[in-house]
Amino acid sequence: MEKEKRWKKLLGRIPLEDYLAAENRAIFRFDCALVYTDKIEDVLKFLQNQLDQ
Q: What is the pTM of this model?
């Protein structure tokens, strides 16, 4: 719970406009993205594949 409060405090200091701009850059820069998913299983498979190569 302490970690959650720290994140809320940190994110609370970032103006919403800056947060959304950074989020859009991270999500929509397909030339830089390696994987994009909301499923942890897909992330784990991707990371395992990266280690196997």
A: 0.45
